[in-house]
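Thread: Newbie trying to understand structure tokens

Hi all, I'm a second-year student working on a class project, and my supervisor (Dr. K.) asked me to get a predicted structure for one chain before our next meeting. I've only ever worked with sequences, so writing a 3D structure as a token string is new to me. If someone could post the tokens and maybe explain what I'm looking at, I'd be very grateful. Here's the chain:
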Amino acid sequence: GLRGGIASPSEQYASCRVLEATSVVLGADEDEYCEVVYKLLLVVVKATGRAAQVRGAALRALSMAYFICCGDSGGGGGEGG
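---
Reply by user tm_fold:
Sure, no problem. This is what the structure looks like when written as tokens:
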């Protein structure tokens, strides 16, 4: 998983890559998925103590989730959407 103290950076990176693939597999109109990954990945993206590769992978996974899975309504739990 993405839990910082438990998983190694390589495991966190791999988890983010899996979330990227999940967005592709799920496809469009999966607003609930967007809301769930937003809450999870935003913490990872904002955590300055994380490896840069992990933060980048989390941002990429979050971007893909919103681009592919969220409906036209502007997305789920986002602060600006």
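A couple of things are worth pointing out once you decode it. The chain has a mean pLDDT of 84. The chain is about 65% helix and 0% strand. Feel free to ask follow-ups in this thread.
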